[in-house]
Amino acid sequence: MTELIHLTAAELAAGLVAGDVSSEEATRAHLDRIAAVDGELNAFLATDAEASLGAARAIDERRAAGEALGALAGVPLAIKDVLVTTDMPSTSGSRILEGYRSPYDATAVAKARAAGLVSIGKTNMDEFAMGSSTENSAYGPVRNQWAVGRVPGGSGGGSAVAVGAFEAPLALGSDTGGSIRQPAALTGTVGAKPTYGGVSRYGAIALASSLDQIGPCARTVLDTALLHDVIAGHDRHDSTSLDFAWPSMAEAARGGADPASLRGLRVGVVKQLMIEGVQPGVRSRFEEALALLAAQGAEIVEIDAPHFEYAVAAYYLILPAEASSNLAKYDSVRFGLRVVPEGVGTVESVMSETRAAGFGAEVKRRIILGTYALSAGYYDAYYGSAQKVRTLIQRDFAAAFARVDVIASPTAPTTAWPLGSHGGDPMQDYLNDATTIPANLAGIPGLSLPIGTASEDGLPVGLQLMAPAFEDARLYRAGAAVESLITARDGRAFWQQSPVFEGGAR
Ligand code: GLN
Question: Is 469 helix (H, G, I), strand (E, B) or coil?
Answer without folding.
Answer: coil
